[in-house]
Amino acid sequence: MSAETYAGLNALSEPGEFTELDRFMFESWGYLVIPNVLTAEEAQECLEAATRLHEKEGTTGWAQVGRGFETEPVLDRLIDHPAVLPKVRALYGDRFILQSAWCTKQPAFGGFGGWHQDGSGAYDFKQLGYPIPLLQLRASFLLTDQSLPRMGNMEMIPGSHRAQVPLPQDIRREKADLPIGQVICAPAGSVLLFHNAVWHRTYVHDGDYDRYTMHYIYSPPWVRFSDRFENDKDYLARTTPVRRYLAGEYERPDAPFGAGYPAAAFDDKKDN
Ligand SMILES: O=C(O)CCC(=O)C(=O)O
Predict the structure, then answer these.
(1) pLDDT exceeding 90 applies to what percent of the chain?
(2) How far is the CA of 269 from the centre of ligand 1 (A)?
(3) Which of 16, 67, 186, 261 could form a disulfide with 190 if both were Cys (CB 3.0 to 4.6 A apart)?
(4) What is the CATH classification number for the domain harbouring 26?
């Protein structure tokens, strides 16, 4: 897909390396759109896996199912996808974990979601200081076509991760539009990579089919998992060293002296 396919301003990136321009766009807007991460066939396989996950759980309406990577190999493969992982590493360094993986369904003819920033209901990230730090970096793999608005897209407010004032209550209450909302338009197989503090919502979906998106959330290693209480032991035994590392099952080398984390498992091992 070429940049011309997208109308208007877009924080368009490319698979792989996190370029200086990527960094500037990410700092400025809080997100990047990466087309052509999955082929049409790969996106279709993942869509089938996502559908199975929700069928197994018997979900209805807007719903999210966690830890699907444990049972669906095609979703496991996305955890360290080479189109995305270099960007995550460029933002975090080599010590981070997969905090959660949520498969979300926006049902056929689903309405608008509520505006929100990502974080923890138990402890508002705003309490940590300004600007809100990067603690949940989300890579959202679009598994259905979202090339046009009203296809269950994500809508983002560019730069809002740096806003020092909250989104007005009436806009949140009424799930209202605002002039600076950007509906992310991209085909299946694209990835939206975004900062937890960017205000966003699920856009309306006019289609007669369910929309699925696979979200992978990366965090510093001391953040607690949110889609699982603990890792499945069988999964850990059969997955790859890199994914096992990202599962965050370290012994507690930080206790009591804060040293001795295991070496990162990435192929091009950097200094650890
Ligand atoms: O998949 C979606 O529609 C949006 C998910 C979302 O905004 C969230 O989980 O924070």
Answers:
(1) 85
(2) 33
(3) 186
(4) 2.60.120.620
